[in-house]
Write a structure and sequence with these properties.
Na:dicarbo_symporter_sf; transmembrane helix; transmembrane; symport; 401 residues; Na-dicarboxylate_symporter; globular; mainly alpha; single chain
Length: 401
């Protein structure tokens, strides 16, 4: 076991978790505290890692012009890939028609109480990104506000240069400490993954596929279509990395994303893999990946597309081309505002369905299997972060020698 790589250990833990869940079913739920402990450890390091990485990454770039150029490319990649992901999700849902043969009578009340989210205007979305009190943002773990505050500090350090070199040194050293703590936490990842996967499989089993199998399958096909038709192109022709090399190295990130269903929770692993395995310079990865974990939600865009079309098909509602174009625009905005935490997409789906004038009763059933589809979409989210970072690294020549 000592000679196995972390990727191999995580993969082994993932496989063992599936086997334990299938064998012991709900009796395996006694492992849940181990999985919960792993998630708490991940949450413990996310805020300081994001905050310090953003500041250290931006201040290490050292040139405002270069920072502006890189920032524009990164955000551009994130927005374009989100729009394309929503379009691909819609196309797959049109082809698969997951709700066409679904009887409305199959909709059951699971007892879940889901409150619709209040729609936010563009101005409200932008204002919500800026913290009234940075300390409160840090204490409550509001990653978007933490990133905005960190960006301002990083830019200020870059402008002031040598006058604040001692502060920059302290931040860089604090960042090193957090990466060491992250490494310590990552050592228990295989055990946490085993517990989380075993409990998920044990709780849901395979019976859920009898009713919502085609709906779940459409989500997975949508996610794989994004990888096949968009990520493969970016990896091969923009990042210029061999596909075999990419998919071999990204596996560890996928397995952690599958088990945690959290883009933010997967961030420490994404950072380590991008910097150590793909050899992207630390200042770039530390800048792009925390932002990506918060605003680059390609997987969530696919989820919204498939779910909205599924509901429309179930109730026999025809969405016009203009409605679908408007949907893609709304999906992009909502995806950017979706927190990178488990289950965040549920209440925002209610908001989207309500805005589109579609019934929301079926969400009670979708909640029951949300984790199963959230797994693949979280993996797609974090893959998009890494792929965009690799592309920018190639364009800006920011790979380690």
């Amino acid at each position: 076991m000592k000679n196995l790589s972390m990727s191999a250990k995580v993969f082994l833990g993932f496989g063992i978790g599936i086997i334990l869940g299938l064998i012991f079913q709900k009796d395996i739920l006694w492992l849940q505290p181990i999985g919960d402990l792993f998630l708490k450890l991940i949450k413990m390091i996310v805020v300081p890692v994001v905050f310090l990485s953003i500041i250290s990454g931006i201040s290490s770039i050292g040139d405002i012009g270069k920072l502006k150029r890189i920032g524009t490319k990164v955000v551009g990649f994130y927005i374009v890939t989100t729009v394309l992901s929503a379009i691909i999700g819609l196309i797959v849902a049109h082809i698969m028609k997951p709700g066409a043969d679904f009887a409305v009578s199959q909709i059951v009340d699971t007892g879940e109480v889901i409150k619709p989210a209040e729609p936010m205007t563009v101005s409200q979305t932008i204002l919500s990104m800026v913290p009234d009190n940075p300390i409160t943002a840090l204490a409550t773990g509001n990653l978007m506000q933490i990133i905005v505050f960190g960006v301002f500090i990083g830019i200020a350090i870059t402008i002031l240069g040598d006058r604040v070199k001692n502060i920059k040194k302290v931040i860089d050293e604090a960042n090193i400490i957090m990466f060491k703590i992250t490494d310590m936490v990552m050592q228990v990842t295989p055990f946490g993954v085993t517990a989380l996967v075993a409990c998920s499989v044990g709780e849901y089993g395979l019976s859920i596929f009898n009713i919502l199998g085609k709906f779940i399958l459409t989500h997975y096909i949508g996610a794989f279509s994004v990888v096949l038709f968009m990520y493969v192109f970016i990896i091969k022709y923009i990042a210029k990395i061999s596909l075999k090399d990419f998919f071999t190295k990204i596996t560890e990130v996928w397995l952690v994303a599958f088990s945690t269903t959290s883009s933010s929770g997967t961030l420490p692993v994404s950072l380590r893999v991008t910097e150590e395995k793909f050899k992207v310079k630390d200042e770039l990865a530390s800048f792009t990946l925390p932002i990506g974990a918060t605003i680059n939600m390609n997987g969530i865009a696919v989820y919204y597309a498939v779910t909205v079309l599924f509901v429309a098909q179930v109730y026999g509602v025809e969405l016009s081309l203009m409605q679908q174009v408007m949907f893609i625009f709304m999906t992009t905005l909502i995806s950017i505002g979706t927190p990178g935490i488990p289950n965040s997409g549920i209440v925002l789906t209610i908001m989207l369905l309500t805005t589109m004038g579609l019934p929301i009763e079926i969400m009670g059933m979708i909640v029951g299997i949300f984790r199963l589809i959230d797994m693949i979409h979280t993996a797609l989210n974090v893959t998009g972060d890494v792929v965009s970072t690799l592309a920018v690294a190639r364009i800006e020549h920011m790979y380690k020698e």
